[in-house]
Automatic annotation (TrEMBL):
This is Importin subunit beta-1-like. InterPro entries: ARM-like, ARM-type_fold, IMB1_TNPO1-like_TPR, Importin_beta. SUPFAM superfamilies: ARM repeat. The keyword Acetylation does not apply. Residues 52-74 are annotated as: Disordered. It comes from Oopsacas minuta. One of its GO terms (cellular component) is cytoplasm.
């Protein structure tokens, strides 16, 4: 819910106290929004016409000025009630549907009449402001006209001076929206806007001051968008704001220490919302205007970094951290001198807020200026002095100790660790060095330094994960541990094993049936908190399994224990009827862990999941059925990623156990579950490409056993192609750029998998003949489609060539069903590509097509 909508709903003056009346209006809006909008405008026209008539016939009207007559409205109670109801309904209607240009004019007239009158009731004024807030995105024509723009801003500035707190807050929110959408048109208004924001930031409550300051975030964000779209730095928006830069930065710096007088000296009081907003705005300004801002900020930092008042020390650090992005060249010399001091502040400053600011700055340094850490490590390695400064040696022990002793700093300390580990990764990529094959003495200095601290960092993170008070940070802690595991070189295999075993032991001690029983008496909210906490441990395990597959294969006992433990949890949850909606992340991570183990190539013949496939597959089928058979409505608690994990695990189980008959009895249920995806005509765009891929993989794995399911498989693929043609254009605008490519590639791969599975013998191949012409038509329709965005990708063309090759391999049986001339034209297009691999695949397709045409009947 938006801020202004929330304010409207919380109004003490709202006349529609009857909730059923509000529900009735909302339902009418959903069903008849266009008709209702026209009708509401007509009713308001009638009410305001009557008011104007009454004013003209008033005995006192001759004494009033013309402008006063137009602006002042005096309402009886019944008239106020009618206008309020109509304006309330109008505000909801505008939020649901876009008014036409013809409708905008009367709506703006109503808003002006309400907001320009000093006698109008506050509830009506607030409704009018809400209407205006919803109209702004559709009012480009009005804002482009100077007179209309000035008129609207006059109304907004009057509302900013209103005695009503909600009115002031909504007015500032509307200003933010105008900056976001029409920044390039606000040059004439910026001076008065700056004055009002400056005043609000000082005298208003924190909530209103926060909204006011967000105007600058909206404006500078619009500057960044204009730069990205235009590909130039000095856009119109950029130049409009630059003359105000010095004053804006000075205001933001002053707000970094804003606090109520009674709390200013309390070190346990967190910074206010407006202070955090000012810091966010400062980051954006320094990123966009670079040196112009940094030159203003650095004197402030130098002045207050040693200030006796901790508020100013914190503000100095925050302001410096705000300068880091996009300013490496300018700040690097300064940072070489300052970074050792920052580490010292983390060790010696007694104020937690200052320590937190230091950790935030360090995380920013490692993210935006990794060169400084690399330079310190290189200089220390090359120096003959034993006391040469190596930043990693100084900072890691301090960060470890800070994480142990100060829980409230966990987020920024962990971010600092994560970004510091990524410095190593960036240096490894730059130098092209491999951790596995490189002698430890030849590793880059920054990596050699970090490796020595892996056990310390891991233990600090693991202990944090144990701490219930840090449960909110479980996801970021697990992510950092995963990065740590990934960077362990071959020389630290023992350390890696230790980390892995300890991670698994942690899961065993935390997520066992006895502990899970505690979840059954919890509320949904409490259970969801535990869901995130437990699944964070499983995420660590999943990463370990993925990164340490070779170690797992060398220690089958560990692998078997992991499988037993994961299945024990999974089946216990199922038997205890803990549904997916209570612990969705936990279920997903459990399945992901099992999928990772199933995919370990080194365990293809000895994988412990082979014996468990028969008991695990029914549970996966249950998950798929719950997702696909819910009357066409996707369950809100079921993430698409969970379906992807479930489908991938299904394929892996068939791959492992296809030689046995133990899972054959479930094949009908599996294919029925896959067929159920067809009930999603509208939002199936996210499910169907995935299903097409699974159809191809599963049909190949089942091989000879696939034949009974051929009609279902082809129905899924052909129906998905129809869905692609009918709905592709509709969803293309909202999808990622490779939407067409991924969908088509998976479709072609699905068809190819089916042909591979049944082309081994002539008897089985004959069953494919009825589908050949349909598939050829699909290929040509898709790749020659005028709605296709750009050219088909290389992967789509490769998939199409492989499919043509596979169909032609059947030989003379399909000769009459393949539109040879069109297919040869497509093959020739691919053969003229600059991609050598695509050319080679096209040549193979050409040869197979010729063989098919030249075969004797």
């Amino acid at each position: 819910m938006t801020l202004v909508a929330d304010i409207l709903n919380r109004l003490e003056l709202v006349r529609l106290q009857d909730k059923s009346e509000q529900v009735r209006i909302a339902e009418t809006i959903r069903l008849h929004s266009n008709d209702s909008l026209e009708k509401t405008i007509s009713l308001l026209n009638k009410e305001f016409s009557q008011l104007n008539k009454r004013k003209r016939s008033s005995p006192d009207s001759s004494l009033e000025s013309e402008s006063s007559k137009d602006s002042e409205i005096s309402l009886s109670e019944s008239q106020a009630d009618k206008i309020y109801r109509h304006m309330y309904k109008l505000s909801l209607l505008i939020s649901e549907s876009v008014p036409s240009q013809e409708q905008l004019l009367p709506i703006y007239t109503f808003i002006r009449s309400c907001l320009s009158s000093s006698h109008i009731e506050e509830s009506i004024s607030l409704c009018s402001l809400y209407c205006l807030w919803n109209l702004v995105p559709h009012s480009g024509r009005y804002f482009s006209q100077k007179g209309e723009r000035e008129s609207l801003f006059k109304l907004l500035l009057n509302s900013i001076k209103s005695e009503n707190t909600n009115a002031r807050q909504i007015a500032f929110e509307i200003l933010c929206l105008t900056a976001e959408l029409y920044a390039g048109l606000l040059q004439d208004q910026l001076e008065v806007i700056f004055d009002n924001i400056s005043k609000a930031a000082v005298v208003e409550s924190s909530e209103i001051a926060d909204v006011a300051v967000r105007f600058w975030i909206s404006f500078v964000s619009a500057v960044i968008r204009s730069q990205e779209q235009g590909g130039i730095e000095h856009t119109q928006e950029y130049d409009i704001l630059k003359p105000f830069l010095s004053r804006i930065i000075s205001l933001l710096l002053a707000l970094l220490t804003k606090q109520s007088p009674e709390l200013i000296a309390d070190p346990n009081t967190e910074t206010t919302e407006v202070t955090r907003t000012a810091a966010e705005a400062l980051c954006l300004f320094c990123k966009t205007y670079k040196n112009d801002c940094v030159r203003i900020v650095l004197p402030y930092v130098e002045k207050h970094i040693e200030n006796a008042n901790f508020r100013f020390r914190e503000a100095a650090l925050v302001s410096f951290g705000s300068c880091l992005e996009n300013n490496e060249e300018f700040l690097l010399p300064y940072l070489k001198l300052a970074l050792p001091s920052f580490v010292n502040y983390l060790k010696t400053d007694e104020i937690v807020l200052v320590k937190d600011a230091v950790c935030w700055v360090l995380a920013g340094v490692y993210e935006f200026m990794p060169k400084i850490v690399i330079d310190f490590s290189n200089e220390a390695a090359e120096s003959k002095r034993s006391n040469a400064y190596n930043h990693i040696d100084h900072v890691v022990p301090v960060l470890v100790e800070t994480l142990k002793t100060t829980e409230s700093l966990a987020k920024n300390v962990i971010d600092a660790f994560t970004n510091l580990l990524k410095v190593h990764d960036a240096e490894m990529q730059r130098t092209g060095v491999s951790l596995i094959s490189t002698d430890p003495d030849d590793l880059p200095p920054v990596t050699k330094s970090l490796i020595t601290y892996i056990p310390q960092i891991y233990n600090a993170l693991k202990n944090s994960l144990d701490n219930p008070k840090m449960r909110n940070f479980a996801d970021v802690i697990s992510e950092t541990i995963c990065i740590l595991v990934e960077m362990c070189p071959a020389t630290l295999v023992d350390t890696v094993k230790k980390i892995h075993v300890e991670s698994l032991q942690k899961i065993k001690t935390l997520v066992v049936p006895e502990d899970l029983k505690k979840l059954f008496d919890m509320t949904v909210e409490e259970a969801q908190e535990c869901d995130e906490f437990y699944s964070a441990y499983l995420a660590i395990s999943g990463s370990c399994i993925q990164k340490l597959a070779l170690i797992l294969s060398l220690n089958s006992a560990i692998c078997s224990n992991v499988v037993v433990m994961l299945l024990q949890i999974l089946f216990h949850l199922n038997q205890a009827q803990v549904s997916f909606d209570i612990l969705p992340s936990l279920y997903e991570e459990l399945l992901f862990n099992l999928s990772q183990i199933a995919s370990v190539e080194y365990l293809i013949d000895t994988n412990p999941l082979i014996a468990k496939a028969e008991s695990l597959l029914p549970l996966i089928i249950m998950i798929l059925e719950e997702a696909f058979r819910n009357e066409g409505q996707w369950p809100e608690y079921m993430p698409f990623s969970m379906i992807e994990v479930s489908l991938n695990l299904t394929v892996q189980l068939y791959r492992l156990a296809h030689a046995s008959d133990t899972i054959d009895k479930y094949s009908h249920q599996v294919w029925n579950a896959l067929s159920d995806c067809l009930i999603y005509p509208h939002y199936g765009w996210e499910v169907r490409p995935m299903i097409c891929k699974i159809v191809g993989e599963l049909s190949q794995i089942m091989n000879q056993k696939f034949e009974p399911f051929l009609p279902q498989a082809m129905n899924i693929l052909l129906d998905s192609f129809t869905h692609y043609k009918e709905h592709g254009v509709q969803f293309r605008g909202a999808m990622v750029e490779d939407y067409d490519d991924q969908y088509l590639e998976n479709l072609f791969d699905g068809f190819t998998g089916v042909f591979i599975s049944l082309s081994g013998s002539q008897t089985q191949a004959e069953k494919l003949i009825p589908y050949v012409k349909l598939i050829v038509t699909a290929i040509l329709d898709a790749l020659n489609n005028e709605d296709y965005v750009g050219l088909p990708s290389r992967d789509v063309l490769v998939a199409s060539m492989v499919l043509i090759t596979q169909m032609a391999s059947i030989g003379v049986l399909v000769r009459d069903y393949m539109n040879s001339s069109d297919l040869f034209e497509l093959i020739e297009d691919c053969h003229s590509s600059d991609d050598a691999d695509l050319v080679a695949i096209a040549e193979t397709a050409y040869e197979k097509m010729n063989e098919m045409l030249n075969d004797d009947v």
